[in-house]
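for the recovery benchmark. tokens below, seq after
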């Protein structure tokens, strides 16, 4: 079943999962905008997604010894980085959430999520057409 979908479909599915994580983290930042001492979180997954879709061709490489650093392969897990946002200015109450930036990030992420979802829908429609179920 795993061979049914191509690399693009798998990359889009991974992108959707990571965008959902980014949405959850950003929504938590917005929800805690008035919480004293709360430090805003940030999610970076573009590098992890790049590794997942193997843009650099690392999965074609191999190691010759167990002492070598792993260069990819099917066991390479895709894990985004979630960390405290170092760019946030600290308010008087110790909170680092910039509500305007967070709302902007939330809107941008929603647009990109919908775009990836539309691309997956188009790929599924193409598969449905190819098997003759119109």
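predicted aa per position
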């Amino acid at each position: 079943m795993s061979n049914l979908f191509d690399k693009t479909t798998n990359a889009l599915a991974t992108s959707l999962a990571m965008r959902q994580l980014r949405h959850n983290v950003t929504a938590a930042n917005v929800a805690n905008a008035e919480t004293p001492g709360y430090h805003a979180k940030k999610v970076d997954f573009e590098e992890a997604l790049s590794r997942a879709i193997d843009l650099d061709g690392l999965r074609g490489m191999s190691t010759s010894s167990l002492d070598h650093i792993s260069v990819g392969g099917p066991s390479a897990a895709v894990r985004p980085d979630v960390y405290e946002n170092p760019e946030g200015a600290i308010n008087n109450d110790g909170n680092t959430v910039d509500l305007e930036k967070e709302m902007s990030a939330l809107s941008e992420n929603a647009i990109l999520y919908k775009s990836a979802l539309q691309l997956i829908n188009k790929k599924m429609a193409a598969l449905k057409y190819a098997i003759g179920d119109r």
